[in-house]
Design goal:
Layout (H helix, E strand, L loop, with lengths): L24 H8 L23 H6 L6 H18 L12 H4 L7 H4 L5 E6 L2 H4 L2 H10 L5 E3 L2 H12 L3 E2 L6 H7 L1 E4 L2 E4 H25 L5 H12 L5 H7 L4 E2 L7 H12 L8 H12 L4 E6 L2 H12 L6 E6 L13 H7 L9 E4 L2 H10 L10
Parallel strand pairs: 1-2, 1-7, 2-6, 7-8, 8-9
Antiparallel strand pairs: 3-5, 4-5
Helix pairs in contact: 7-12, 8-10, 10-13, 11-12, 14-15
């Protein structure tokens, strides 16, 4: 490495660099050194001009060359468009996996034109607690996603919102004061404790019925089967799980007991023991969803178990073809929540030749914008 070492340049030794002996040449060369020419196809940074009026589509198209996280939003929009645009017919038949080549049906290009990428949508519970729930419900209602992964809070909050309201509050409201009033705070949202009491009254009879069915059939319920029952029972078009059940979209929640539902199962165990929640069936089911897909896309809002569970399922097929992560986690602490897409590539969770995108931002701001430029553009055609 010795050939890379540079000796410091003295003022005397660099006198020939400048014609003005009063200005140190080394400083002149450091500040005013010439740069290489940029390649002709390098995008130019330029923001949206509101003199052209208020045009959401044009504004978000300009995000690509705005810089910082706006550019990442623009790239994420393009990634989702590619995810939704993909058809198996895009891949030349001779380049298909031997498994697919042996399928006589797939030799017909018209058949391959109808095969899309399977889209995994994953989100943490706060996305249901807030108004993002309506954006997610839209996607599920119109069958625009194929597999869902969420947390226990995401499952129960959707049902609770069909029973009682969540209210706006403030991030600075004192926890001790709220506790005395029986009000729970989620960021700047307020959830009265009575909401959970009503959920208990609604869910306990269903839990009893599930327990009866388990004893009668000898079959155990998985989280995905329970969530489908919740959607069927609530019978409310405002519910995400209603539409998931109606459209037969599987919803996975590996930590279903980590919330109010877990509380109910705990209380029930003292009244009547023996109910079993089978997560083993669901791990096989979600992994098979990925393995048996011709191509996959991941859209993950937040981190933690939903991010890893989705990525790990796609690891089973040697990585997702398309990926968009939206979260505020950072990678300095080694957490999976904050891990970059490139780290996911190292594990085989994202394909080597893919172009994954991470947006470091609040999903409640950027995800509706992303949906407005992708899924919401072709509801009827989809």
């Amino acid at each position: 490495m010795d050939h890379l070492k540079n000796e410091p340049l003295s003022v005397e030794a660099s006198a020939n660099i400048t014609s003005d002996p009063s200005v140190p040449s080394i400083s002149t060369s450091a500040v005013l050194g010439e740069s290489m020419e940029m390649p002709s196809d390098t995008p130019i940074c330029k923001g949206y001009d509101f003199n052209n009026g208020i045009d959401l589509t044009s504004m978000l198209q300009s995000a690509l060359v705005t810089g910082f996280q706006a550019t990442n939003l623009g790239l994420a929009i393009e990634e989702v468009k590619n995810m939704r645009r993909w058809r198996m017919s895009d891949v030349p038949f001779e380049k298909l996996s031997p498994i697919y080549k042996s399928d006589d049906n797939l030799q017909d290009i018209e058949v391959r034109k109808k095969i899309r990428a399977k889209i995994f949508l994953s989100f943490t519970s706060n996305q249901i607690s807030c108004g993002q729930r309506e954006v997610i419900r839209f996607l599920v209602q119109h069958k625009m996603v194929d597999v869902i992964v969420t947390t226990a809070g995401g499952v129960e909050e959707d049902i609770i919102k069909c029973l009682r309201h969540t209210y706006m509050g403030d991030f600075k409201l004192k926890g001790a004061d709220l506790r005395k009033k029986g009000i729970n705070r989620i960021g700047n949202l307020l959830v009265p404790n009575n909401n959970y009491c009503e959920f208990e009254d609604w869910f306990t009879p269903l839990l009893e019925a599930l327990h009866d069915e388990q004893e009668q059939t000898g079959e155990y319920f998985t989280p995905s089967k329970i969530i489908k029952r919740l959607g069927e029972k609530i019978d409310n078009e405002e519910s995400v799980w209603y539409w998931a059940a109606k459209n037969d979209i599987p919803v996975f929640c590996p930590a279903l007991t980590d919330g109010s539902i877990g509380d109910m199962i705990y209380f029930q165990s003292y009244k009547r023991s023996g109910f079993v929640l089978d997560i083993a069936q669901d791990i096989r089911r979600i992994n098979d969803e990925a393995v048996q897909a011709y191509a996959t896309g991941m859209i993950i809002l937040g981190g933690g178990v939903v991010k890893h569970h989705t990525c790990n399922a796609n690891l089973m097929r040697n990585g997702a073809d398309f990926s968009v992560f939206i979260n505020t986690g950072q990678e300095f602490d080694g957490s999976d929540s904050g891990a970059s897409p490139d780290e996911a590539i190292s594990w085989g969770k994202v394909k080597l030749d893919s172009r994954p995108v991470k947006i470091c931002a609040d999903a409640t701001i950027v995800f509706p914008l992303l949906v407005s430029q992708t899924f919401a553009k072709d509801v009827e055609e989809w």
